[in-house]
Prior knowledge:
The protein has one domain: Glycerol-3-phosphate (1)-acyltransferase, CATH 3.40.1130. It contains eight helices and seven strands, in the order αββαβαβαβαβαβαα. The protein has helices at about 5-20, 45-55, 70-80, 90-105, 125-135, 150, 175-180, 185-205, and strands at about 25, 35-40, 60-65, 80-85, 105-110, 140-145, 165-170. Helix 3 (about 70-80) links the parallel strand 3 (about 60-65) and strand 4 (about 80-85). The longest helix has 20 residues, at about 185-205. The protein is globular and about 50 Å long. The two termini are about 30 Å apart.
Amino acid sequence: MKLxxxxxxxxxxxxxxxxxxxKVLNPERVPADGAAILASNHASYLDPPLIxxxxxxxxxxxxxxxxxxxxxxxxxLRAVNCVPVDREGGSPGGLKTVMQLLRHGNAVLLFPExxxxxxxxxxxxxxxxxLLVLKCGCPVVPVGIWGMHEAYGRHMKFxxxxxxxxxxxxxxxxxxxxxRTQNCTKxxxxxxxxxxxxxxxxxxxxxxxxxxxxxx
Length: 216
């Protein structure tokens, strides 16, 4: 790992262990190399560094372009594999950026819901994630991070101690769906994007810890 990435990995790993008492399940399901999409639910600003610290492989993150306006902040963000995109990667420019990262064999963390949940419950996925998955053809690892809405949801100014679980699912292969979209109508293509996005959210929901009430 690059030095600054390693430092962040250590700091947020310690935060996860000692402050959030995290439980990390099946991190070995993330491919050790090659292009991969990690698709997670989203409840907190801390989701990206905590998920990144839960695995040993370096991954890439997406950040709002506005965060890169300060030259020092931009240098730090780039050093920890954060790349600027507009609208969290949902725009054509954002999709192009993610595709470039994947073509170079990187792993990229995405949030199919597009933004942090307002109430702790899973939100519908944006169709753009389905488009991206079918265009890149790489495996998709569903990730569920549970407990962060209560610990540091969008309604909170400061994180509080809690119990957080990060669970990694089996890689999903959408190559069969991708093959069916090679010669289809625009309406069928949109349906395929939605199908993939919904399947990813369903896989994330299935990672919910036993006894959970369904909030993130």
